């Protein structure tokens, strides 16, 4: 649709939506706000035709004029403020919100986000929807995840606290009406972008229950979320969009209606890239049966979705009752938003667009931006700076005088960069610390030049002599990737029409980030220019990714190999390091602002290969440190950094996420002490990428991911952060030495501000179960509280631990269990041990059918779907792989082992061994070839000498699948 036609159509639709209701519609029972919601939904549902019901299952729900029902759209992005709808208050990235460890403050951010969503809705009710797709609660298991900035923490408890606060803020505090409707993303075990549509997250039951699901449950069970979004990936062989957990698990956490939505194109992937079902009707029917209520497909074109659902109905793949069940969930949210109620009943309906970017919202953005800054180092009390002895500040680095938005940012109404923020405090000298170069076509001797027009034009190599339009500023983002900004108009070079290079981008952006290049040095000293945009692998892109200079002088992508690319001479006009040093010399302090670019250093659909600081940025840090002993590094990034940069002799280091419009003020507020840092890390900062396991390993207990299971020495640990004052912990006591499984323990500790400044300490309580049948975390966060203390003030902080929260998923009986065991509780440097009186897990009973996935340990195997509808089984992929069942009571003589198996490959065997994978052989299951992987058959093997309490191992000698097993005669 053309922009002109859209500009005419949108007001027309809005006017129709606001037009008076038909007289008959005003009196229908579903419009009576005093009736129970269920009765209203039933009344409306009974008035809808089949086609109308089906139409409500698409993201863009059409108006139903005969009933006076307007259009409704699911999905307004709102991770850290309303996104994609125009200028709005932009708060720090979600990761930064969690850095505050301040649920009350995060709830205020959620409230502003919901309020501004209402403002946008009032501006355009047809397209600015009130179903917000936020927050993201996927756990930050691996910092290489491209969407790291969208989540809160690697810890499920902290994630639950922050997401609940944000969701409550969005919803508002009215007992009947929602200000807006938050939807948690992305269910479940989603933490990889590379091949994310087809990647299979293999998660054993205990980790799935105790870790991944534990992040989603708090907000849902607290009724601080109105739904979840299914994720792109598969989990244990089954696409999440058809996973029965949507209905069976997620909806079990609350009595309130939830609207479960699909991710963009996610339901179509089920029959598309995932090839799980053969046709769209089959896939969509399976999604509805699993619990999906809203299909996010084909943007505003609902035809494919509605046609597929109606075809599924006609083929008997689903029933009308299935459709109506989904429609009820959708309508429930619309009723709670007050859509069908008389004017004046819903207080949120009175919100107007004037709330957007309100002065108080700007003030909150500044407060939150400061609150999320983490002080990582402060040797010899370098910070805070004093205005008395800091008259001149050098502000240098690639991020010194710019603010970057990310994919889910709103549009900033203004931008306070670090340079601008610090210029309000002192005289500022600045440099971006990037090289300005010229490129010369060595074949012709002509220089690359750029247009001075604000809209840019194709770069050409036609000038015999260099001039002001030939300068290119090179921004180093690591791994050889750079962006090039032309001196001619200050715009970034991008890939344009006809694959020409054009200087037209304000900053790197877009779904395909087409501003990424590599300057590849050649053995002869020349350079070739390689395009490195993240669409380079697309089939339509073609093989040519190297730049050539055409006969007309234009730079285009025209070579498939280095040998056919144009060779350029790289001439340095101005050294970035030298420029930064010049700015830093003579300054009372030097602030080096370095970090990431959210569209380049990993984002949706693009994981990071490394978390190391780019070498070019590290070089600026080192050089400025030598030039000015009072150097403060400000890291601005969407993820933790690893590497050896922290070993540099740096007096002070701050870390901030990309913190929105008030970033510069926040940095200045922290540097000059107006704000005393109280933020804490929500992820482990590893010393090296080598400390990180394969990112596809979701079993964090086996891989050693996150602070819960990592046994190495981190660069900075989870929960870390310094203050301009100091705190002492003393007199830790517990109100009981032993607690029952249904009880709770109150932990009290005295916290004293031993410094000369008021400050905030985040008091964190961790537990460690010292004895258990299973591997327990090294430690696990159980409670926290922020406490503000004046100099010399002591306060007793009380934290409560419910014994029920110490439970874990017992695979032997498929339930949560509180074990009888000693638990060490730690607050700061202090510890106390309590006894928990729960239960002792009995020896395993394999005399009843046991799901193979409920093993105690494993090597090499994977988890797969038992059927397309439900169930999880174990599959071997190579000989020698095994699963084990520990402490099995085989009684006086176990006679046989029976297993339900499937095997589309060659006949094979599964050995039954005791004590270990090479232990005593007591039986062998002969596994025949079956028709396919879903054709299950039962096989048995006699057992010889299998008695007493034993660890039972099933060792695969080839490829096979096991769904369940039973040992007969074990009592």
From TrEMBL:
InterPro entries: BXL (IPR044993), CBM6 (IPR005084), Cellulose-bd_IV (IPR006584), Fn3-like (IPR026891), Galactose-bd-like_sf (IPR008979), GH (IPR017853), Glyco_hydro_3_C (IPR002772), Glyco_hydro_3_C_sf (IPR036881)
Signal sequence bounds: 1-25
Any one Gene Ontology molecular-function term assigned to this protein's record: beta-glucosidase activity
SUPFAM superfamilies: (Trans)glycosidases (SSF51445), Beta-D-glucan exohydrolase, C-terminal domain (SSF52279), Galactose-binding domain-like (SSF49785)
Keyword line: Hydrolase, Signal
Keyword Signal among UniProt keywords: yes
Stretches assigned to the CBM6 domain: 848-968
Transmembrane segments: none
Domain of life: Bacteria
Pfam families referenced in this protein's UniProt entry, alphabetically: CBM_6 (PF03422), Fn3-like (PF14310), Glyco_hydro_3 (PF00933), Glyco_hydro_3_C (PF01915)
GO biological process, one term: xylan catabolic process
Function: Catalyzes the hydrolysis of a non-reducing terminal alpha-L-arabinopyranosidic linkage in ginsenoside Rb2 (alpha-L-arabinopyranosyl-(1->6)-alpha-D-glucopyranosyl) to release alpha-D-glucopyranosyl (Rd). It is not able to hydrolyze alpha-L-arabinofuranosyl-(1->6)-alpha-D-glucopyranosyl (Rc).
Similarity field: Belongs to the glycosyl hydrolase 3 family.
Name recorded for this polypeptide: Exo-alpha-(1->6)-L-arabinopyranosidase
């Amino acid at each position: 649709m053309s922009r002109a036609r859209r500009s005419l159509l949108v007001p027309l639709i809005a006017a129709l939506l606001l037009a008076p209701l038909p007289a008959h519609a005003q009196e229908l029972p579903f419009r009576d706000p005093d009736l129970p919601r269920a009765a209203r939904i039933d009344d409306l549902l009974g008035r809808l035709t089949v086609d109308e019901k089906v139409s409500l299952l698409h993201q863009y729900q059409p108006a139903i004029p005969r009933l006076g029902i307007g259009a409704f759209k699911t999905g307004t992005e709102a991770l850290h403020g309303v996104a994609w709808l125009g200028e709005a208050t932009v708060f720090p990235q979600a990761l930064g919100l969690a850095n505050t460890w301040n649920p009350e403050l995060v709830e205020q951010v959620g409230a502003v986000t919901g309020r501004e969503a209402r403002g946008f809705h009032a501006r355009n009710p047809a397209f600015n929807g009130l179903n917000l797709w936020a927050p993201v609660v996927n756990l930050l298991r691996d910092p290489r995840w491209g969407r790291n900035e969208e989540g809160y923490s690697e810890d499920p408890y902290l994630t639950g606290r922050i997401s609940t606060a944000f969701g409550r803020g969005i919803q508002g505090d009215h007992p009947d009406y929602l200000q807006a409707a938050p939807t948690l993303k992305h269910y479940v075990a989603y933490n990889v972008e590379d091949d994310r549509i087809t990647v299979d997250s293999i998660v054993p039951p205990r980790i799935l229950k105790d870790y991944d699901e534990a992040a989603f449950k708090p907000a849902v069970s607290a009724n601080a979320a109105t739904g979840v979004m299914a994720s792109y990936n598969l989990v244990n062989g089954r696409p999440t969009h058809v996973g029965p957990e949507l209905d069976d698990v997620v909806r079990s956490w609350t009595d309130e209606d939830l609207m479960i939505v699909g991710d963009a194109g996610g339901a179509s992937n089920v029959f598309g890239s995932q090839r799980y079902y053969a046709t769209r009707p089959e896939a969509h029917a399976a999604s509805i049966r699993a619990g999906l209520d809203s299909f996010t497909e084909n943007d505003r074109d609902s035809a494919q979705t509605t046609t597929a659902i109606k075809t599924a109905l006609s083929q008997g793949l689903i029933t009308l009752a299935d459709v109506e069940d989904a429609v009820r969930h959708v309508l429930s949210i619309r009723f709670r938003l007050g859509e069908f109620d008389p004017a004046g009943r819903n207080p949120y309906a009175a919100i107007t667009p004037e709330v957007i970017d309100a002065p108080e919202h700007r003030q909150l953005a500044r407060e939150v931006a400061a609150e999320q800054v983490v002080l990582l180092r402060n040797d010899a009390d370098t910070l805070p700076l004093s205005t008395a002895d800091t008259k001149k500040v050098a502000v240098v680095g690639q991020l010194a005088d710019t603010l970057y938005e990310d994919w889910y940012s709103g549009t900033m109404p203004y931008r306070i960069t670090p340079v601008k923020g610090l210029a309000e405090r002192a005289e500022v000298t600045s440099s971006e610390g990037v090289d300005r170069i010229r490129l010369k076509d060595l074949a012709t001797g002509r220089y690359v030049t750029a247009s001075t027009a604000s809209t840019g034009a194709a770069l050409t190599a036609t000038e015999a002599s260099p001039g002001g339009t030939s300068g290119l500023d090179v921004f180093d983002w690591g791994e050889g990737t750079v962006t090039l900004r032309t001196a001619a108009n200050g715009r970034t070079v991008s890939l344009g029409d006809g694959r020409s290079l054009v200087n037209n981008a304000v900053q790197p952006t877009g779904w395909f980030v087409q501003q990424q290049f590599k300057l590849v040095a050649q053995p002869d000293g020349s350079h070739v220019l390689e395009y490195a945009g993240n669409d380079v692998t697309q089939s339509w892109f073609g093989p040519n990714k190297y730049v050539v200079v055409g006969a007309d002088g234009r730079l285009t992508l025209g070579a498939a190999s280095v040998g056919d690319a144009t060779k350029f001479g790289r001439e340095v006009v101005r050294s970035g390091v030298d420029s930064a040093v010049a700015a830093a010399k003579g300054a009372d302090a030097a602030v080096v602002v370095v970090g990431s670019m959210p569209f380049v250093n990993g984002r949706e659909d693009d994981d990071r290969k490394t978390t190391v600081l780019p070498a070019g940025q590290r070089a600026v840090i080192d050089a400025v440190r030598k030039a000015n002993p009072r150097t403060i590094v400000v890291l601005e990034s969407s993820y933790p950094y690893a590497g050896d940069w922290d070993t540099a002799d740096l007096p002070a280091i701050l870390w901030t996420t990309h913190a929105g419009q008030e970033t510069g003020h926040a940095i200045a507020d922290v540097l000059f002490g107006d704000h005393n840092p109280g933020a804490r890390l929500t992820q482990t900062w590893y010393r090296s990428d080598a400390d990180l396991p394969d990112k596809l390993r979701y079993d964090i207990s086996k891989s050693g991911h996150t602070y819960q299971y990592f046994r190495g020495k981190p660069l900075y640990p989870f929960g870390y952060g310094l203050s301009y004052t100091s705190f002492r912990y003393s007199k830790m006591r517990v109100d009981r030495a032993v607690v029952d499984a249904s009880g709770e323990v109150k932990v009290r500790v005295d916290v004293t501000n031993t410094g000369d400044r008021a400050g905030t300490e985040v008091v964190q309580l961790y537990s460690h179960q010292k004895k258990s049948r299973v591997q327990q975390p090294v430690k696990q966060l159980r409670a926290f509280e922020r406490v503000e203390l004046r100099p010399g003030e002591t306060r007793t902080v009380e934290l409560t631990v419910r014994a029920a929260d110490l439970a874990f998923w017992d695979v032997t009986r498929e339930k949560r269990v509180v074990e009888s065991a000693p638990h060490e509780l730690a607050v700061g440097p202090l510890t106390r041990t309590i006894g928990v009186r729960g239960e002792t897990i009995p020896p395993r009973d394999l005399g009843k059918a046991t799901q193979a996935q409920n093993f105690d340990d494993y090597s090499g195997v994977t988890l797969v779907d038992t059927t397309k509808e439900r169930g999880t089984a174990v599959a071997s992929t190579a000989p020698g792989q095994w699963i084990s069942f520990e402490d099995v009571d085989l009684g006086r003589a176990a006679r046989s082992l029976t297993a339900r198996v499937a095997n589309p490959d060659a006949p094979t065997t599964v050995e039954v061994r005791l004590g270990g994978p090479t232990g005593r052989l007591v039986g062998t299951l002969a596994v025949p070839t079956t028709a396919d992987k879903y054709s299950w058959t039962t096989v048995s093997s006699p057992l010889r000498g299998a008695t007493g309490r034993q660890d039972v191992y099933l060792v695969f000698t080839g490829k096979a699948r096991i769904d369940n097993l039973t040992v007969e005669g074990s009592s």
